[in-house]
Amino acid sequence: MSESEQRPEDGQREKVLEVRDVTVAFGKNVVLDNLNLDIYRGEILGFVGASGTGKSVLMRTILRLLRRQSGVIRILGHDYDTAEEADRIKLDMRLGVLFQHGALFSALTVRENIQVPMREYLDLPQSLMDELTEVKIEMVGLDVSAANKYPSELSGGMIKRAALARALALDPDLVFLDEPTSGLDPIGAAEFDELIAQLRDTLGLTVYMVTHDLDSLFSVCDRIAVLGQKKVLISGTISEMLEFDDPWVQSYFRGKRARTIGGHPDGSGSSAEAYRAEPAGK
After folding, report:
1. Which candidate, 116, 113, 163, 162, places its Cα nearest to that of 142?
2. Which of 62, 68, 218, 268 is the most exposed place for a label (fewest CB within 10 A)?
3. What is the pLDDT of residues 210-262, one digit of tens each?
């Protein structure tokens, strides 16, 4: 029996993130309109949509980097807006973020970058922070020698991994990844996807991943949410995406560069480890 078949129904699963009736506008331009979204503990959710639809806007709104006009966002069962200051700090510590281009501080070494959240939220001796930093570096598949390097000395793939190590610095419950495989070659992207899946399984992470990478959606995502018309049009498995009657969704998942499920004849299972290219129109 596959992991998805063992997974309980949504109503029985713990919601790590709840977005309810969220509206975000810039002046008169409404980007998100009464949007709803749930993410469940232990899953990897792939968040997709056409360019300019507001994928990054939603992520930044959840992270309180952008203001919303209305709606409620609950993280780990708590409404950040009504929480006490001490509880807000605890919530912040349970979130990790990997921005699209890594967003490492160029004047800091990899070690110093990873220790930024440790210094902000924890009171630890330097020796312990150094030990924890080495653990995080090895956890993301980098050699410990990378600790003393600056971002300018790293390849694109190493920057992604170093930024992921920083996102994991405080052992978060929920990790946000913004286009984690963009700029990577196919082999590097596949290895990064595998790393995300391994970290989810070993650390019990919940992952919110904004991506355009079809291979990532098929290989590691348990569910997919599609943003369009200022709302989440659909959330579900790959098989549900293929059956959803929407022109953009059909073009995205059945177009010339699309993939289709193999090895899942009943449509069950959220990760399609086996897949094949399918000609457009089929």
Report:
1. 162
2. 268
3. 988 888 888 899 999 999 999 999 999 988 988 898 888 888 888 766 654 44
pTM above 0.70, yes or no: yes
Contact yes or no for 96/174 (Cβ under 8 A): yes
| Cβ-count burial 247-275 (b if 16+ within 10 Å, e if not) | ebbbebbbeeebbbbeebeeeebbbbeeb
The helix/strand/coil state of 66 is: coil
Report residue 183 as tokens.
């700029």
CA 121 to CA 181: how far, in whole Å? 29
Could you tell me if 267 and 261 are in contact, meaning their C-beta atoms sit under 8 angstroms apart?
yes
Tokens 């966002």 locate to 73
CA–CA gap between residue 58 and residue 77 (Å, rounded): 19
Residue 138's identity, in one-letter code, is E
Q: How far apart are CA 277 and CA 141, in angstroms?
A: 30
Closest CA to 251 of 56, 55, 49: 49
